[in-house]
């Protein structure tokens, strides 16, 4: 969570080990806002994006900005790489 900004930068890295290439799968990334008020916490979706992982496998990498679905003007920059060992 990054407080008090409309342009957060998480710069997080995640690694997943897979037994086979995810040619039929998609990754769903959803951006959430955490609202505070009246002594309770609520979450609100700011938008999402679905990325076809076959594109990542065939190209080796996707490094693009995506317009968030169900968002007025939200954009997310995603860098996904496919490496075989």
UniProtKB/TrEMBL annotation:
Q: Name one Pfam family in it.
A: C2
- PROSITE patterns this protein is in? C2
| Chain ranges of the C2 domain | 1-66
Recorded GO molecular functions are: lipid binding
Q: Which GO terms describe its cellular component?
A: endoplasmic reticulum
Q: Enumerate the Gene3D superfamilies for this protein.
A: C2 domain
Q: Please name the PANTHER family in this protein's record.
A: EXTENDED SYNAPTOTAGMIN-RELATED, OS06G0685300 PROTEIN
Under what name is this protein listed? C2 domain-containing protein
Q: Organism source for this protein? A: Coptis chinensis
Upper lineage ranks? Eukaryota, Viridiplantae, Streptophyta, Embryophyta, Tracheophyta
